[in-house]
Amino acid sequence: MNRNLYVKIAYWYHTLGMTQDEIAKRLSYTRQKVNQIINALPDMGIVTLNIHGYERNNVELENQIEERFRLREAIVAPDYGEPSTAIYKVANVAAQYLDEIIQQGHIIGVSWGRTLAEVADQMSYRRRSACRVIQLMGAQNIERPVEKCDEIARGIANKLDCPSYMLYAPVVVEHAETKRWLFQEKSIKASYELMRECDIAVLGVGELSEQSTMCARGHITKDDIRVLRAQGFVADLAMNPIRRDGSYDDCPLTERLLNADMECLKKIDNTVLVATGEEKIEAIRAALRSGCIDTLIIDETTAKNVMEGV
Question: What is the distance of C-alpha 85 from the center of its chain?
Answer without folding.
Answer: 20
